[in-house]
Task: inverse folding
């Protein structure tokens, strides 16, 4: 048996593959593997590492905000005298941390985890495929992503440090930024975008072509639908950012003026450039990607939560078809809302009116999805397993994140809230206690499939309750600060402004909660690594679930299934009247 | 290691597609978005510019290049058709012809670039020069990518013909689809940059 997905476990499960035995070397098995499950695990581990790294950057920033101009404890000496002389960080370094926190969390942490990790590992299993349609392309996607990640990390060590013009890299600020950090950022982004493009082609082809016999479109698990729409968003929204990245690279390296207006004066001197470019063009190209990117962050999370809610309420998902149509509609709409990030740019009220309208329209399918997931709970006998804790917490957290977005989607209120901590609170509620909680739910849920062992429940609950309480103390006060008008980008929190005087003390509260939040990740890290070897052994279907991945061995061997599964029914036939058990797997034939 | 992924050579009955064909069409869709963004950039820069240079590009050279690329698309189709008629040596002749035409295009482009730079108009000279070099440069890279793929199918990639002729013909077809797309981009680039 090519027991590739089993990290550190022996071939305790899935003996059926034994006859197809051919041993691969270490490098082909764990490093340059073509197996979607190994690639999925590689993405997951790399993504988790980047998430942690991005979180560390933020914890350092939070020290500066809570206790301005005092030396960073513990790691202050490691930051380097160029960045933080005597452990006190310089404003330039603060900006680097901010820009790289955003970039790393979005492009190197959450997306690789949600799409590269979960999509790669779970999706082919859920559709009954032996692997992805293009295994070599799959391996290449991971390694191109890896190179992009290394480029981003390396940029901290070049002259001038990492990119420091915000994760949005607005021109002309980013074009005129000194040092090589911004150039490295652009090169890194080209790698990351290329990786996502290769991956998305692979995902769509796999879902369209490799569905098991009988697995019709309306029998697909909701998670697969979410991944399909996500892949289309990546496929069609990322190329314009790739174009924009190349253009900004030309501006920086070849001295062109794509984004540089005529007569630009920087530091009291007129720049020696031809001018004639358009700074707003960068913002349009950037947000044309970056708004669909928001849905790339949230859709896989919705998919994961859907799976876990159906499994733990022991009921079919409420309104499966409505969920599917909503997710497709959401995908379409996400391409025509991007300029709601640009109300303050002076692009004109007519354009603003259009984008306000589309923004209000896109909230409809989001509300439909959230409502359907909420109604799925109605009348269910809920199993409060660790994944279900995270999935249940996702609903109100995503709800808060979504509803606080409405005032930002309307230009009149956005004028007040723009660039304040309110915005930070809003999108972090969507992606941190929203998406990242869903990702944790997914890790606890599919861990037994990947390793053949369960994660510890008690540690999982400690991880959940600690994280849930702390993360709300981190982000809830930001709404108060933002409504009070506190600007999001100031190095000392904005001590020179009188209106901030009664808001700044929240920074200490937020800082404390953020560092405590880090402590509550320790049970997870310990649980994750010890359960690989010492967790309670799990059989094929430890959660009594219906979808196809649970009919494969845990962990599945190379090629996934002993025989190609045949599908006879929908994805969520829980507690069907007349059925012998409270779940009917998709492979169960119709009874005559 | 040789796991059999279904529908690599034969089409899936209900979708009527092989994996590769769907894959290449999706890839081309993303390419449309890439060049779409670049053409939009051209449009926005040109509309916002008080003057736009005319007649600075070498139209005869551009015309020759257009002819070269259209011819290469024809030889590409013939290379695929030859495989379908089981004439492998004819296929090689046409594929070599495609590569030669593509290389001639790039040589022409090199002379064009040299002439343009000799006039003292590097990419930084104006937004016109910037968009000219960037658009044609990225297009040139696409040509180069196509040449590399075709050379692969003339060299080590050709071994597949003996093992699985169906799949080899499919791969040449996918290469052809990509090649026609690159050709099509030039059909837009030529009037937009040289004539209008």
Result:
């Amino acid at each position: 048996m090519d027991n590739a997905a089993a990290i550190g476990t022996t071939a305790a499960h899935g003996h059926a593959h034994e006859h197809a035995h051919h041993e691969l070397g270490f490098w082909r098995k764990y490093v340059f593997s073509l197996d979607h499950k190994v690639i999925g695990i590689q993405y997951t581990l790399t993504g988790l590492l980047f998430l942690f790294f991005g979180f560390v950057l933020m914890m350092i920033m939070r020290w500066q905000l809570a206790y301005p101009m005092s030396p960073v404890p513990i790691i202050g000496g490691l930051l380097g005298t160029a960045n933080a002389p005597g452990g006190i960080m310089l404003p330039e370094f603060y900006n680097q941390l901010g820009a790289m926190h955003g970039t790393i969390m979005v492009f190197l942490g959450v997306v690789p985890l949600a799409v590269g990790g979960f999509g790669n590992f779970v999706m082919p299993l859920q559709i009954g495929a032996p692997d992805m349609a293009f295994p070599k392309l799959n391996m290449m996607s991971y390694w191109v992503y890896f190179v992009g990640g290394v480029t981003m990390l390396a940029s901290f060590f070049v002259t001038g440090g990492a990119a420091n013009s915000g994760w949005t890299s607005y021109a002309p600020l980013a074009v005129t930024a000194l040092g090589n950090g911004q150039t490295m950022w652009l090169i890194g982004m080209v790698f990351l975008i290329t990786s996502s493009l290769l991956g998305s082609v692979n995902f769509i082809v796999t879902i369209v072509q490799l569905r098991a016999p009988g697995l019709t479109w309306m029998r697909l698990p909701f998670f697969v639908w979410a991944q399909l729409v996500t892949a289309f968003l990546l496929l069609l929204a990322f190329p314009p950012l790739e174009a924009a990245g190349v253009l900004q690279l030309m501006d920086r390296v070849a001295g062109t003026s794509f984004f540089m207006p005529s007569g630009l004066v920087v530091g009291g001197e007129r720049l020696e450039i031809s001018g004639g470019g358009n700074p707003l063009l960068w913002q349009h190209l950037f947000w044309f990607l970056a708004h669909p990117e928001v849905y790339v962050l949230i859709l896989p999370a919705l998919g994961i939560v859907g799976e876990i809610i159906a499994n733990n309420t022991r009921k079919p998902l409420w309104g499966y078809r409505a969920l599917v149509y909503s997710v497709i509609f959401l995908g379409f709409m996400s391409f025509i809302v991007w300029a709601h990030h640009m109300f303050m740019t002076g692009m004109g009220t007519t354009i603003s009116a259009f984008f306000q309208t589309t923004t209000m329209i896109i909230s409809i399918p989001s509300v439909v999805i959230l409502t359907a997931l909420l109604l799925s709970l109605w009348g269910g006998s809920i199993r409060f397993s660790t994944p279900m804790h995270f999935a249940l917490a996702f609903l109100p957290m995503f709800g808060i994140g979504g509803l606080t977005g409405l005032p930002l989607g309307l230009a009149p209120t956005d004028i007040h809230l723009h660039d304040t901590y309110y915005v930070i609170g809003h999108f972090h509620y969507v992606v941190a206690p929203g998406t990242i909680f869903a990702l944790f739910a997914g890790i606890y849920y599919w861990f037994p499939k990947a390793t053949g062992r369960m994660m510890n429940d008690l540690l999982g609950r400690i991880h959940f309750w600690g994280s849930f309480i702390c993360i709300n103390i981190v982000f809830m006060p930001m709404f108060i600060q933002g409504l009070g008008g506190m600007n999001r980008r100031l190095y000392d929190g904005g001590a020179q402004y009188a209106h901030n005087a009664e808001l700044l003390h929240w920074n200490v509260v937020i800082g404390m909660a953020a560092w405590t939040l880090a402590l509550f990740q320790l049970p997870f890290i310990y649980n994750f690594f010890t359960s690989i070897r010492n967790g309670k052994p799990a059989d094929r279907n430890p959660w009594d679930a219906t979808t196809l991945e649970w009919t494969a061995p845990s962990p599945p061997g190379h090629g996934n299934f002993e025989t190609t599964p045949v599908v006879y029914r929908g994805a969520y036939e829980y507690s069907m009247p007349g059925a012998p058990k409270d779940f009917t797997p998709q492979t169960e034939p119709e009874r005559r | 290691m040789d796991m059999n992924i279904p529908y690599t050579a034969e089409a899936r009955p209900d979708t009527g597609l092989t994996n590769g064909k769907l894959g290449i069409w999706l890839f081309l869709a993303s390419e449309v978005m890439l060049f779409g963004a670049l053409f939009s950039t051209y449009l926005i820069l040109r509309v916002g510019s008080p003057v736009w240079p005319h007649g600075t590009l070498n139209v005869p050279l551009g015309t020759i290049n257009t002819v070269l690329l259209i011819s290469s698309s024809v030889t590409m189709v013939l290379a695929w058709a030859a495989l379908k008629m089981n004439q492998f040596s004819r296929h090689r002749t046409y594929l070599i012809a495609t590569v030669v035409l593509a290389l001639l295009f790039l040589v022409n482009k090199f002379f064009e670039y040299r002439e343009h730079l000799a006039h003292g108009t590097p990419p930084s000279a104006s937004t016109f020069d910037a968009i000219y070099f960037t658009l044609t440069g990225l297009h040139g890279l696409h040509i180069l990518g196509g040449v590399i793929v075709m050379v692969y199918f003339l060299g080590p990639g050709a071994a597949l013909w003996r093992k699985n002729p169906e799949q080899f013909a499919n791969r040449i077809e996918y290469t052809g689809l990509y090649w026609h797309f690159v050709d099509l981009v030039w059909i837009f680039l030529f009037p937009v940059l040289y004539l209008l």
Observations:
- Strands of chain A lie at 265-266, 269-270.
